[in-house]
Design brief:
Blueprint: H1 3-22, E1 26-28, E2 32-34, H2 38-44, H3 51-60, E3 67-71, H4 105-120, H5 131-137, E4 142-145, H6 157-166, E5 170-175, H7 180-184, E6 192-196, H8 202-209, H9 216-229, E7 234-240, H10 249-259, E8 263-268, H11 287-301, E9 304-309, E10 314-318
Parallel strand pairs: 3-4, 4-5, 5-6, 6-7, 7-8
Antiparallel strand pairs: 1-2, 2-3, 8-10, 9-10
Helix pairs in contact: 4-6, 10-11
């Protein structure tokens, strides 16, 4: 990389880091980030738990107050999804392959835990804080590898999962499926692998996910094929946006049937962050809309209706 390109990269990184810091993200090393989920804070203050605890505690022991929300590729993503609450316009690039700085998994995890504790420090001594939960939160047990960017843009994603597991974590890896080669090379499986499936066909995908890679649909279909043979726990998540992707249920179902996931989450787009510059509040479905969408989809899937959470506007369908 020549000096001019290196300077331009540095400027883009610093701009994105400043934006994230203003939004209370903790920056870790050269390309990772952590942020305390609002549901983690609520749980510590005994104000409720997130839908992941509600849905998956019996499967994996997931608890909101011991969850670490992080990304090893905070500034990198091949898509510019219209519903993303992040400043997608500041994305550095699609992939990290040519990124000159690459942090090791152990240092990323150490840094994320350190930043996580720092971000939680303000809750200590707060009148409504459950101090037992606060103390347990200092040593998180589940890594939600999503948060911002595309985690599989990090070439060492398999090693990162392995290191989390070595430390006794469960792991939820969320991907948009644009780097199937990274999934195919996973030597360490996450506790649960999520595929974000926001569109049933290339036309809707182009409108909702705004991909930057020209062969985006071929990449997604390669991921679908990989998942069809993947025998680890897997989940498909549909983020529903009124006026954009809330139809074509048979097409959705055909893709999901090929994947054969253990779980399907049908979730509402939330009118938050920078997405408010791209979408309108009326694009955010109500919970009764999500129930309707999940019901229409399940006419083709015939999964079990395993749960719902009105606060997060999400329904869980399950085949187990």
């Amino acid at each position: 990389m020549d000096e001019r390109s290196n300077n331009a990269l540095h400027e883009k990184l610093e701009l994105f880091k400043k934006t994230l810091k203003r939004q209370h993200y903790g920056i870790v090393g050269d390309h990772s980030a952590v942020k305390v989920c609002e549901w983690t804070k609520k749980s510590i203050k005994d104000q409720g738990v997130c839908y992941k605890e509600k849905f998956y505690y019996n499967h994996y022991g997931i608890q909101s107050h011991t969850c670490l929300q992080m990304s090893p590729a905070a500034f990198f993503c091949p898509n510019r999804c219209i519903y993303c609450w992040r400043a997608i316009e500041q994305t550095v690039s699609a992939d990290m392959t040519s990124f000159p700085l690459m942090d090791e998994p152990a240092s990323i995890i150490d840094g994320c835990i350190q930043q996580h504790r720092k971000l939680l420090s303000g809750l200590k001594g707060y009148a409504g804080t459950n101090m037992k939960k606060w103390e347990e939160a200092q040593n998180p047990k589940n890594a939600a590898i999503s948060l911002i960017g595309e985690p599989t843009a990090y070439p060492l994603i398999s090693d990162l999962i392995k290191e989390f597991h070595r430390r006794g974590f469960t792991t939820f890896l969320v991907t948009n499926g644009q780097f199937p080669e990274r999934l195919e090379k996973l030597e360490e499986r996450p506790t649960q692998l999520y595929l974000s499936l926001d569109a049933p066909n290339p036309e809707i995908y182009r409108r909702v996910d705004c991909p930057t890679l020209p062969d985006f649909w071929d990449r997604l279909m390669r991921t679908v094929e990989f998942l069809s043979a993947y025998d680890g726990r897997k989940c498909v998540r549909l983020t529903m946006i009124k006026g954009y992707n809330t139809s074509n249920w048979e097409e959705y179902a055909k893709l999901i049937e090929r994947i054969n996931p253990h779980f399907v989450e049908v979730k509402a787009y939330m009118y938050l962050g920078f997405s408010r510059y791209r979408l309108k509040e009326e694009n955010m479905p109500y919970h009764h809309d999500i129930i309707e969408y999940a019901s229409k989809l399940n006419e083709y899937l015939n999964y079990n209706w395993a749960g719902e959470d009105e606060r997060s506007r999400v329904v869980l369908l399950s085949r187990i």
